[in-house]
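Exercise 7. Given the encoded structure of a 118-residue chain, write a plausible sequence.
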């Protein structure tokens, strides 16, 4: 007789635990959360620490940040010290600065000592 009372109690307990687990699940769907974990984003809303502009995920996309690192630019906004006109990245492009050094010109604007900008 005791077994008849225990089995329904176990089933009811399992059902209540299942409902409790559902109500405390993070926001977003499982695929959205998987994308967030893999890409370091916060599309689902479950990972606010991965939102753009935080220390974990600076401004821009991973692609624009990779471009910025390779080209010494600030397209993404994550590398302000690499903006044009700073000591790290003077005016013009690397190609125009190379041209200016080779021809003693100031096409890029980085070499004012070479004369007026042409």
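Solution.
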């Amino acid at each position: 007789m005791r077994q008849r009372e225990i089995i329904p109690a176990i089933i009811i307990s399992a059902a209540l635990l299942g409902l409790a687990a559902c109500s405390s699940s993070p926001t977003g769907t499982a695929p959205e959360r998987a994308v967030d974990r893999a890409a370091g984003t916060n599309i689902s809303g479950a990972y606010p620490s991965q939102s753009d502009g935080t220390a974990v995920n600076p401004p821009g996309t991973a692609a624009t940040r990779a471009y910025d690192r390779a080209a010494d630019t600030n397209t993404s906004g994550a590398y302000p010290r690499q903006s044009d006109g700073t000591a790290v990245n003077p005016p013009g492009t690397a190609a125009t600065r190379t041209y200016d050094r080779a021809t003693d010109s100031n096409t890029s604007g980085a070499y004012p000592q070479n004369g007026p900008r042409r």
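Remark. The longest helix spans residues 2-23. Students should compare their own answers with the one above.
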